[in-house]
Amino acid sequence: MSEAAFDDSEINQEDDxxxxxxxxxxxxxxxxxxxLNEKFSPELQENKSEVVECVxxxxxxxxxxxxxxxxxxxxxxxxxxEVDRIRFxxxxxxxxxxxxxxxxxxxxxxxxxxxxxxxxxLLSPEEFAFAKEYYDNTEAYLxxxxxxxxxxxxxxxxxxxxxxxxxxxxxxFLRVKEKQENILIEPxxxxxxxxxxxxxxxxxxLMRYRTIAPLISNGAVKLI
Amino acid sequence: xxxxxxxxxxxxxxxxxxPNFSLDKIYLIGGDLGPFNPGLPVDxxxxxxxxxxxxxxxxxxPPDWMDVEKLEExxxxxxxxxxxxxxxxxxxxxxxKLLLNHxxxxxxxxxxxxxxxxxxxxxxxxxxxxxxxxxxSQQEAHAKxxxxxxLEINTIRExxxxxxxCMFKLRSNLQAGSSGRTFTDY
Lengths: 224, 186
Fold this sequence. Notes:
The complex is a heterodimer of chains A (224) and B (186).
Chain A: H1 2-17, H2 24-40, H3 49-67, H4 74-113, H5 125-145, H6 159-162, E1 171-176, E2 180-185, E3 195-199, E4 204-208, H7 209-217, E5 221-223
Antiparallel strand pairs in A: 1-4, 1-5, 2-3
Helix pairs in contact in A: 2-3, 2-4, 3-4, 4-5
Chain B: H1 3-10, E1 14-19, E2 26-28, E3 31-33, E4 42-45, H2 46-54, E5 58-61, H3 68-80, H4 92-103, H5 110-137, E6 142-144, H6 150-174, H7 176-179
Antiparallel strand pairs in B: 1-4, 1-5, 2-3
């Protein structure tokens, strides 16, 4: 009887995270990694909705448990501190994504539009709605204050050209989680040659974001 | 990144405390802690250790490396070597600062340790400035930064990355005709 119940809960968990069963500690580690990656990368990273949802679930569950505990309980205050710390990471993560969406909204929407079916979406549904609304509002605002008073041939605006693109050539600091071989480093100046480097596990590097962008999404390196 | 956020990450490091109260095991989201028994050392994250300490509920046992002799050795090695030497903890500076500010009565020779860690930090930051300078003047495209800690990277991050970006922009404008790369960031 009890065994069957246990099995059930495990299956449910698997459904939630869509991969192997993660312990809450691993989940928090994942969130922290996503937070730092998002903080340091010049462009928007893939959304981590499952991680965010799982963490939210953990937090609400814990908070509802804490509601029932009377004030002044030592254990409860420790739990509360932990909840506050996790919530801080979560909000900081979501906020840094929103900041990037505000900064690069036409490009974010463009990438979302040109995305092939089956490819994971860059934005969560909520973020997509936010980006769309931000786009419409900005456009409406520009029209209302300036564009409609312009000569007719100047009344349209191409947002893609008006808003700067994320600079993928920025340098980033990173730590290697899985060994990578033959990473091509492009030369800085014309009189230098390109060369390859191997990224050893655990080593730290400074290089262009463009070179290692795919390695971030598959989790082989993390930004620091 | 704000230095306080680096400190936030450092607060997850485990330290040993000797509690003066008893409490059952706590099942936190990030893992289980305890049980706590008076007089028995137990591992807890630094944020919790500092909280207990502030409420005078525990004594903190400083990490092994927070010891005058060991730190003197590290300082000498750091001065001798040209490259960065391995540090005793990835958050050595933050841990020292937090522990000395909040629990200096639990750390023997706290003042000496403060000076030693500051010496090590200064030596390393001087090296870091030198290597950043040569990185830029040689126009490198890749650097290996083993043994650097997050806080150290953070002290030069903004300045170095912004200057590299500026230089890249200036250079790509010069080469705009030949490389054909479009670049828009006003």
